[in-house]
Model the fold of this input.
Amino acid sequence: MRIALGVEYDGQGFHGWQAQQEGVRTVQVVLEQALSRVANHPLRVVCAGRTDTGVHALGQVVHFDTEAARSERNWLLGSNVNLPPDVAVTWVREVSEDFSARFSAVSRRYRYFILNRTARSAVLAGRVTWVHRPLDAEMMHHAGQVLVGEHDFSSYRALGCQAKSPVRTLHSLTVERHGDFVVLSVHANAFLHHMIRNIAGVLIAIGKGDRPAPWAAEVLALRDRTLGGVTAPPQGLYFEQVEYPPEFGIPTPTLSGFPVA
Done:
């Protein structure tokens, strides 16, 4: 049978999602170890989107195949008992064999949280990006609208990005202020390596007044990452949600209880 899971994690203690050489702590490794204990045989999981070192997830989705007969409740409770405190399985569903956490996804959502105040936070350290200079969130939002739609995002992807095409479709991009927080929300069909952090870096520079609002469009037109500005830190980035065709019955995560919903 094929099982789908919702997974959330605090990315501070991990070298990203993907399994690497032995001894490197990644989310994939600890999740596979926990699930393999429940199944009593080795398992390999496929995720909706790989995240980098320090990046968090509220709505990561994975799937795996198994012959182990376990109830959804037993998968949920058994995996969480065997997982460290910084990873949790939030839901479990048996799905059809044609479901793929990666290839069945029709869109993905990320949020980037910025604490914008003079003093840093002890409580939210590692969970938000701190910018002490005042940010003009309205200007950041206005500047970011040129990125909505289908574009060649070569200037907004990492130099080492291995995607075959730099073309992606942004369905929406918003920047909003909530008290001391400035929140960048991005919804797209898919993302390139470092794409959101590079967008955030450009918009933060505009928000601080270091660059004019048209710079976001100028960077896009250059199609050259070396001219694209600073990559924002990973700490504020959250993989929020993956959207699938309704027939798969995949739950939608919620940000309720988060500092800025």
In short: Residues 233 and 261 are 21 Å apart (CA to CA). Strands lie at 2-9, 46-47, 56-65, 87-95, 107-115, 129-130, 149-152, 167-178, 181-188, 237-243.
